[in-house]
UniProtKB/TrEMBL annotation:
Gene3D superfamilies: P-loop containing nucleotide triphosphate hydrolases. The chain crosses the membrane at residues 6-27, 39-60, 66-85, 133-165. Keywords: Membrane, Transmembrane, Transmembrane helix. CDD domains: Ras_like_GTPase (cd00882). The keyword Transmembrane applies. InterPro entries: P-loop_NTPase. This is Uncharacterized protein. SUPFAM superfamilies: P-loop containing nucleoside triphosphate hydrolases. The keyword Ribosomal protein does not apply.
Length: 499
């Protein structure tokens, strides 16, 4: 149970029991003088309610002011106290469909549940099975005065607390939503590639819960059905450290409540996509360090170990792969999650049974199209490409364009606003660099070597196209330039920070 429930329920039940017990003491135990002195405070309800038992005393042959009658009333009071302390009173679990405890004021049918608190010894005995429920049933008349008074007090206090808690939830939820929309906006799964407002979280006991925010389950904290406390605000970044779960595929993910920026890679086999990606992350990490930004690399594909081995990177596997991602954070910059989708060039070869990879290209903030200039020159001089005729930059772009427009439902006249970077790779090779640098621009190079269609398709499909020349191995630290351009096009604060 979270601290809010424990404190508020304890206070309400304590006030109700205090009044009931003191009223009973003043009306049945203390002498007449004290009763008269206290009648306006404690006896105005207790005396009339106990008076309703007079026919019962006559029926069982007991005097109203006898020790036996008092003992029976004490037993009734004890069972009311048992009802307050019983499991049914403190059971705020959400059930299998909602594995989180509720705020006691916002539990389903909370008003009726509150009324039942003094009577819950009946429910408790029934649930115990081995104890005859007839015992508390027989004592119902003697519980009646105390339970009724307790109910009246609880109703008044419950109404006050409900109003206060409802207002508190609305204020906290609004503040949390505004902060989340400012810093994060949405989350994305590196496994299934789909985005969503917020992920689910997994408690340490294994229960999967909806994302904890200020709501009917708590304002500052939630509690799972097993009683484990979970933060429901991100003060000091504590909520962002929870174990996250994708609500679509159920895969474990890390979000840090950081704004995701998704970059998808396109290109033919051997065009240098993966090597460029690893070099770019290495260069961005170094630049970020110089700017006082911490880089937190999560996935192995762009890790420090991968950066050390970038000269021997294996070809990207075919099929749908997990995204690579890392985080950038600093004291004066909301954390950013950089997600990179690297797809094998084989997937861009013409094929009648091609996978569309819908989620790769439905949710992205920038696209990098890698071109191997050596392949372009070989094709221009009618040399047979060693990788096969299907593996050409133009074929890869046409295949991608078909997928992209079909997935997003774009017509022929529609231009995507997603930044599109055309990158000539392998500028760390002298022969290639000389041929490319001999032309005024990368676009001029493509036009000269019979790949003007690449330029034309890109310009017709995307409204924001930019050309780059990079050393894939990162020798000139320019492998990061197309990535930085896409980041700057999507986040002005990050752009200024990385200047």
């Amino acid at each position: 149970m979270n601290n809010t429930n424990r404190a508020l329920m304890g206070t309400l039940i304590g006030i109700a029991l205090f009044y009931v017990i003191i009223s009973f003491i003043f009306t049945r135990v203390l002498d007449v003088g004290v009763k008269i002195f206290s009648i306006s405070i404690f006896s105005f309800a207790m005396d009339p309610l106990i008076g309703l038992l007079d026919p019962l005393w006559t029926l069982i042959g007991v005097e109203n002011d006898s020790l036996t009658a008092t003992a029976l009333l004490v037993l009734g009071l004890v069972f009311v106290i048992v009802g307050f302390a019983s499991k049914p009173t403190w059971d705020l679990k959400g059930g299998e469909d909602d594995p989180q405890e509720y705020l006691f004021t916002h539990r389903p049918k909370a008003f009726l549940w509150c009324l039942m608190m003094p009577w819950n010894s009946l429910t408790w005995f029934w649930q115990m099975k081995k104890v005859p429920v007839i015992i508390p049933i027989i004592l119902i008349p003697f519980m009646f005065p105390f339970a009724v008074i307790a109910d009246v007090i609880l109703i008044v206090l419950f109404a006050i607390v409900w109003v206060a808690m409802t207002a508190g939830i609305k204020m906290a939820a609004k503040k949390d939503r505004e902060q989340y929309e400012k810093d994060t906006q949405y989350a994305i799964c590196p496994k299934c590639k789909r985005n969503f407002d917020r992920p689910n979280v997994k408690c340490k006991c294994g229960l999967v819960l909806s994302y904890p925010v200020p709501n009917e389950h708590g304002i500052k904290t939630h509690a799972c059905n097993n009683g484990h406390i979970i933060p429901s605000t991100n003060k000091d970044g504590i909520r962002a450290k929870l174990q996250m779960v994708c609500p679509h595929c159920g895969g474990g993910i890390i979000t840090h409540e950081a704004k995701p920026i998704v970059i998808s890679m396109v290109g033919s086999v051997g065009s240098g996509k993966t090597t460029m990606m690893v070099s770019a992350v290495e260069s961005i990490s170094a630049l970020a360090k110089d700017r006082g930004i911490v880089t937190d690399v999560i996935t192995d594909g762009v890790s420090v170990n991968a950066q050390r081995k970038k000269t021997n990177i294996m070809p990207t596997k075919t099929g749908e792969l997990d995204s690579q991602y890392f985080f950038l954070r600093s004291r004066d910059l909301p954390e950013k999650q950089i997600v990179i989708n690297d797809i094998s060039g084989i997937e861009f070869q013409p094929d009648n049974e091609k996978n569309l990879f819908e989620e790769y290209y439905r949710y992205n903030d920038g696209i990098i199209f890698a071109i191997d200039p050596l392949e372009v020159m070989a094709l221009h001089h009618s040399q047979s490409p060693t990788k096969g005729s299907k593996n050409t930059p133009l074929a890869a772009l046409e295949s991608f364009y078909h997928m992209y427009t079909e997935i997003n439902g774009y017509g022929p006249a529609v231009k995507s606003s997603v930044p599109f970077a055309i990158v000539l790779t392998r500028m760390d090779e002298t022969k290639i660099k000389a041929a490319v640098d001999a032309e005024a621009t990368p676009a001029a190079f493509l036009n000269k070597y019979s790949h003007g269609m690449v330029v034309d398709i890109a310009q017709s499909a995307f409204a924001n196209v930019k050309y780059f020349k990079v050393a894939s191995l990162g020798n000139d630290n320019n492998a990061m330039e197309p990535f930085l351009w896409i980041l700057s096009e999507n986040d002005e604060d990050l752009k200024n920070k990385l200047k």
